[in-house]
Amino acid sequence: MLGRDFFARSVHEVAPDLIGVTLLVDGVGGTIVEVEAYDQEDPASHAFRGPTPRNAVMFGAPGFAYVYRSYGIHWCLNAVCDVEGRAEAALVRALAPTHGVEEMRARRGGVPDRALCSGPGKLCRALAITREHDGLPLDEPPFALLERASEPEIVTGPRIGITRAAERPWRYGLAGSPFLSRPFR
DNA sequence: ACCGCGATGCACT
DNA sequence: GTGCATCGCGGTG
To answer: What is the mean pLDDT of each run of 10 residues along chain A (185 residues)?
Structure first.
């Protein structure tokens, strides 16, 4: 089990270290294969313009879940990071399903297994993550984070779906994984 | 393969 | 009123 101190570092260290970690919610989930980093000086980050009710968790202690609604439909999960009081977060973008696959299939309505968790909105659907998880600690139920077994081969590239600061190579992935939201170039 | 678009909530100008 | 840290579907090459 990963403790909260894992997240008491710069998101630029935490994000690549999350690749290969197993994320479970009520025992359902899989191996993290894709993450993006957002820091406080980042125009693409929700924290860039300062605290609001929505992003309040980002300005709190590290090791907690920041869950927000995207495009009015989807939920997205972040792990809050923090070094020297900065508001930073790692957006969990894709998992390789390993635990509770039948449950995830039922929640995701017949998509191929490869697409069960191949995007930030998709994985929240598969793991039933909603606003109720916003602000919950990641090292206590219903969450669980299992340390990776071996050192993964990590690839990087520009982040997806943003318009500002889009050139920053702060997207991290497991090399060659078929469970990514999109391939790396 | 790519491209367009609708669904829908909410923070912010 | 505008713009998203999205997704899935339906159209066209």
So the answer is: 94 97 97 95 91 92 95 94 90 96 92 94 96 95 96 94 89 95 91
Structure tokens at A161: 């779906």
pTM of the model: 0.95
Residue A152 structural domain: 4-174
Q: Classify residue A184: in a domain, yes or no.
A: no
Q: CA A142 → C1' B2, Å?
A: 40
Distance in Å from C11's C1' to A14's CA comes to 42
Which residues have C-beta within 8 Å of that of residue A97, sequence separation ≥ 6? A29, A30, A104, A113, A116, A117, A126, A179
CATH number at residue A77: 3.10.300.10
